Amino acid sequence: MNPILVAVKEELSEKDLPEDFQIHYTGVGKINAAIKTLKIIKDYSPSLIINYGTAGSLNKELKGLVEVTRFFQRDMDATARGFKIGQTPYDDIGEINFGSGGYSCGTGDSFVTQTPKLKTDLVDMEAYAIAKICYIENIKFKCFKYISDNADANANEDWLENVSLGKELFVKQMRNLAKSVTVE
After folding, report:
1. Of 38, 53, 74, 181, which is least packed with CB atoms within 10 Å of its CB?
2. What are phi and psi of 100, to 5 degrees?
3. For residues 139 and 48, what is the distance between their CA atoms, to the nearest angstrom?
4. For residue range 151-176, what is the model confidence (pLDDT) as tens digits?
């Protein structure tokens, strides 16, 4: 079983995927994503977890479907206590990195409509939580995001218009992944 974690059905549905993959909806936000990720690990013991969803781009050059390999918690701000933006106080895990060549994503519990303090290529609301659990549990993690908006004043309208446009690109990516690696 190859779990694909997706926040909401508007982004991807079961009928869109090859039969080797199974969708699990996390709901929106880091807490919901963490709860669902832990449940998937408990119930299925996967060796690989895949996350797909939409993201706002802070890098105006990015378009389409991109792979994310570096993850940050963009709404963690303990700078008043001397910590760096994005650093969880007293936690040894900072940037989570699952390989080279991909883009960076800042995850937070807010829909981004202006440039956040932490600079990353993309912003979303679930990936960091899933990545951190996979990192701690030593589970392979792949993350693909479809650029739905530019994380600006038009982000909400753009997201509504583009939320489902990445499905076909992601399914093609999953077919390629299934051919290139053995997935359980």
Report:
1. 181
2. -105, 165
3. 6
4. 888 888 888 888 888 888 998 888 88
